[in-house]
Amino acid sequence: MRRLLCQVCAGPADHNDHGTLWLIQDQRGLWPGWPERAQNTHPPLCLRCARIAVKSCPWLKHGFVAVRAQSFVSGAWGGVYRTGWPDLRPLLADTITVQFGDARLRWLQADQLTRELVGCAFVELDRLAGDT
Ligand SMILES: [Zn+2]
């Protein structure tokens, strides 16, 4: 995620002047202008792996969109814990995204880096030039 490598083959993700290629859960309507400023925990993909993933990844069967976007590492995703040794229970039942600068970050047991997507544009994988 930090180096924008493909989440499948670990090669360079597909990137051009319009941004890096991402496949993200389709949440259109979540807010006006979505996915602009979305916090994304899944690394980008190269075009070859993106085309394979849309056919075979069970997670993508629930609906996805292909997006080109610029991005920056914005925080981390995981469980937030509280003080109170020896009672170290999670503060929240669910895992959350905590952005850099948030005071809760020091209590986060981070699982994944997050990147904020900016300058987003929907793309159709079939229309992208590539090697497959
Ligand atoms: Zn790949």
Summarize the structure.
This protein is mainly beta and 132 residues long.
Structural notes for this entry:
- This protein has 132 residues and is mainly β.
- The protein has a domain at 15-74 and 114-127.
- It has 1 helix and 6 strands; from the N terminus they run E-E-E-H-E-E-E.
- Strands 1, 2, 3, 4, 5 and 6 form a 6-stranded antiparallel beta sheet that branches.
- A hairpin with a 2-residue loop joins strand 1 (15-16) and strand 2.
- The chain is elongated, with a radius of gyration of 16 Å.
- The two termini are 24 Å apart.
- The model has no long low-confidence stretch (mean pLDDT 91).
- It binds zinc ion.
- Zinc ion (ZN) binds at residues 6, 8-9, 11, 45-46, 48-49.
